[in-house]
Amino acid sequence: MKRWFQDGLLRSVLRNAGYLLSGKLAGAVLGLVALSCAGRGLTPALFGTLMIVHTYANGAGALVKFQTWQFIIRFGAPALARGERDAARDTIRFAFGLDIASGLLGMVAAMAILPFLANWLELPPEDFRLALFYCTLVPTMTAATPVGVLRLLDRFDLIGWQQTVTPTLRAAVAAAAFFAGWGFPGFVAAWYLADLSGDLVTWFLAARELRRHDLADAFRPGLFATARRLPGAWGFVWTTNLAHSVYGAWGSVSNLVVAGVLGPVAAGLFKISTTLLDSSAKPADMLSRGFYPEIMRLDPSSRQPWRLGLRVSLLSAAMGAALAVVVQLAGAPVIGFVFGQKYLAAFGLLQVMTWSLVISTAAFPLESLLYMADRQRAALAAQLVATALYLALLFVLTHRFGLAGAGYAFLLGTVLNAGLMLLPTLGSYRRRASLHRHAEAAA
């Protein structure tokens, strides 16, 4: 273990993860403050409706969102390393144009579909207009270009700071809504203004960094003409878009399924459980975000990236196991204190879902390793199968066992996703080892 931390790459991953984690931990605490104000200031039914309004727009964004930050790292980092600034500039321009197009399309689609889903989601008629207006956030929710720029230019410190903007503003406006008695519209405003402000700050920071690196003209959107100068661009972005759309089922779509089967109150309880679970997984999530840029600079035919992936996986799994124990011991008191006794039913669900932390944190390097090995389609296929099985389990088990069934489905889905991602990763490693042996023999 001592030798692990002498590895400069691992130290770099941990340093970048530390920047991100500092912001995320502060954001998680402030996010709980906002949820606490909403939970105490609204009835369980209205709290559930607030979560539906937010997750609907968020889910619409997730379904159309292109992972342009991954594209910027995958194509832009090697270009900058080779000194090809025009290629790096084209990478950012293409990502920017893709964000604008997909965001506007997602907003229009979300607004058009909402009237047909309102009854199934039990969205009250008096709150329908607020939900419709909330969909105007989709274009900024889908934009990943500024985050990609900051990661490309190694400004993880700025990303860590930016991550506190949204939860800080959300907590402040939610507290004002609670004490002033603004009711449901006040809490919708808190969520809306916070999301919008956080996204705008990210764009501002990215634009400033591009000016500092003499790349300011990269913030001119380009699309088809720009893509022609970037071989493989469309294939990569479509694959990662589908992968992220599938991944969205584990958050926003899950909430909507629970809302449709069990109603807004159950959706609110499910949201509380997933929020606490996400907060507990932040350390591993930040390792993942620091791991991806570093591994994309390595040669997939060498042992170095695979060894780094194994070490990060073991460290992350240990953190996940420790956090799972903490959640089991402290979950009920935290829910009671933050949200109130009327939401304690969420703890039974959280107890089941918590053990997915160990599995998901151990498995997070798998997707990055497959992308590095140019096996993004294999990663997508694994996610498609796992998510389809998860949604089927979620629907069936929620019908059969109620809210507890949603927890069991989440746990089983996590196991399926990890197992199906592991298979092509092992295949890629064996193929690398075989090619390496052949190259040595030829030499």
From TrEMBL:
InterPro entries the record matches: Poly_Biosynth_Transport
Principal location: membrane
Name of the featured protein: Lipopolysaccharide biosynthesis protein
Subcellular location: Cell membrane
Domain of life: Bacteria
PANTHER family: INNER MEMBRANE PROTEIN YGHQ, PST FAMILY PREDICTED COLANIC ACID TRANSPORTER
Residue spans crossing the bilayer: 21-39, 45-64, 94-118, 130-150, 171-194, 247-270, 312-339, 345-366, 378-397, 403-423
Membrane topology field: Multi-pass membrane protein
Keywords assigned: Cell membrane, Membrane, Transmembrane, Transmembrane helix
Keyword Membrane carried by entry: yes
